[in-house]
Design a protein that fits this description.
single chain, 449 residues, alpha/beta, FAD/NAD(P)-binding domain, Polyamine Oxidase, Chain A, domain 2, 3 domains, seven-stranded mixed beta sheet, 14 helices, 20 strands, binds flavin-adenine dinucleotide
């Protein structure tokens, strides 16, 4: 029988690698530290309100081709419900409700027509968006010579996007896709978002939302897929170190297995690590990190805060909306998104560096105050319950330095492969990046024989 391949981590990246290898006839053993699968994209049953709660609202996009392929392989693609066309509502305390709805036209006419017809932009802002679209389609793709050093904000300014348009539109998009302030995030990670999600096919621009809890969309189906092909999936096993031949001092170290917290050792010549960089630095010897992955220790996390509020009545009939000029950036009406979701809304603060230390009560007060400014129906509604989820390590902050430090799937450590949303996928740290990295790591393992 073929040699067993160890995969560490049971989030989107690890499960994708496991499914791809199992599909190719390889025997997989996946090990996850937590008692549950799903990593940073998971859900749980929440007894106080009898709800299914995600660790944070996740959006999928039509351009998540690898994710859709993965979900199709495990038979759950119907659990993500896509809009027929890109349609986004913005709420603004001064101008009220506006929207961007893109008709089903060939790319990039869908976006151009949507922007021209939208009441979200002034005439001059519409021209600025058209100018940006044109720049992206030129030979240089709108990238100046110093592009790799630019932040999103600097790049948008160079592309003639006014401060108001940046604040009201591009910033909301940037923070949703990159989980970072546009004045910090690297332009190089925003460019593929624009190209793939906005200025490509109309279907790719559509937004998809899970119609069930996130975990139900993939974790058990992926584990069952692996188990049905002679593989195994273990939870609640904490890997404490990768075992290397010659302890990393050799010119070319080689992986020999892993050690777990219960003291046991599992031998393997092929290991895919899908753990985030903050964990990976602890699993490899310091010398190996310093020599082969020197950029890793400088990677910093960017937090996300999810504010889940349950009311005594419906506060909006919108499914989701971007909030302009507020601390909360996006509002999701779980009552509409989930079948039988109740009067439940989930509010998101991404790139939440300035708010992560705030007390939960303070965050609830902030959420209520902001919601009442945007939604008249929230003014008389009584808050029945709240749940604040702080994900301090939501993603790697995509600074230009961090982007340069992203490692490839193959490593100088023989037999060790890397996956995870933070690795060098060319995409921001999203589900699609995680899934793409899983497929890439699996392909490299198969190539290695
Ligand atoms: C609140 C929030 C909102 C988000 N919103 C979106 C969104 O709208 N759209 C989008 O596309 N993306 C979104 N993301 C990002 C998305 O969740 C991640 O990109 C994706 O889940 C990362 O998957 P991964 O497999 O690379 O990593 P992870 O999910 O982190 O998986 C790594 C796994 O490794 C395990 N592990 C770690 N150390 C060990 C160890 N020592 N031994 C064994 N196992 C270990 C962890 O427990 C974890 O399960 C969001 C993230 C958060 C937190």
């Amino acid at each position: 029988m073929a040699e067993e391949i160890l995969i560490i981590g049971g989030g989107f990246a690890g499960l994708t690698a496991g499914v791809a290898l199992a599909e190719a006839g390889r025997r997989v053993r996946l090990i996850e530290q937590k008692p549950y699968l799903g990593g940073r994209a998971r859900s749980f049953d929440y007894a106080p309100t009898n709800s299914v709660v995600d660790n944070g609202q996740h959006i999928f996009m039509g351009c998540y081709h690898d994710t859709l392929r993965f979900l199709k392989s495990i038979g759950t693609q119907d659990r993500i419900r896509f809009q027929p066309r890109l349609s986004v509502t913005f709420l603004d305390t001064k101008v009220g409700k506006t929207s961007l709805v893109c008709p089903r036209l060939p790319a990039t006419w869908h976006l151009l027509a949507g922007v021209l017809r939208s009441d979200s932009f002034s005439v001059s802002e519409k021209l600025q968006v058209l100018r940006l679209g044109r720049a992206l389609r030129t030979r240089g793709g709108g990238r100046p010579p110093d592009f790799e050093r630019l932040t999103v904000d600097e790049w948008m300014e160079r592309l003639g996007q006014s401060a108001r348009l940046r604040r009201n539109f591009w910033d909301l998009l940037c923070i949703a896709a990159l989980n970072e302030d546009p004045q910090i995030a690297a332009a190089a990670v925003f460019e593929p978002v624009l190209r793939l999600a906005l200025f490509n096919a109309a279907d790719d621009s559509r937004i998809g939302l899970a119609s069930q809890g996130l975990s139900a969309c993939y974790t058990e189906a992926a584990a069952a897929f692996i188990r049905a092909r002679q593989g195994s999936v273990e939870t609640a096993r904490d890997v404490t170190a990768f075992q290397l031949a010659a302890e990393g001092n050799a010119a070319s170290p080689e992986v020999k297995g892993i050690q777990s917290a219960d003291g046991s050792v599992i031998e393997a010549n092929t290991v895919i690590s899908s753990v985030p960089p903050f964990q990976l630095v602890r699993l490899l010897p310091k010398e190996v990190i310093a020599r082969f992955f020197p950029g890793l220790p400088s990677m910093r996390p960017a937090p996300i805060i999810s504010l889940n509020l349950w009311f005594d009545r419906e506060v909006t009939d919108l499914e989701f909306a971007g909030l302009r000029g507020a601390t909360i950036q996006w509002l999701f009406n779980k009552g509409k998104i989930l079948a039988d979701g109740g009067h439940y809304v989930s509010l998101v603060i991404s790139g939440a560096h300035d708010h992560i230390q705030r007390e939960k009560d303070e965050l609830v007060s902030l959420a209520l105050a902001e919601l009442r400014q945007f939604l008249p129906a929230a003014q008389d509604a009584r808050l029945v319950h709240s749940l604040i989820i702080k994900e301090r390590f939501a993603t790697v902050s995509p600074t230009a330095e961090a982007v340069r430090a992203r490692p490839a799937a193959t490593t100088p450590v023989r037999g060790l492969f890397l996956a995870g949303d933070w690795t060098r996928t060319g995409l921001p740290a999203t589900i699609e990046s995680a899934v793409k990295s899983g497929y890439t790591a699996a392909a490299e393992v198969l190539k290695a024989g």
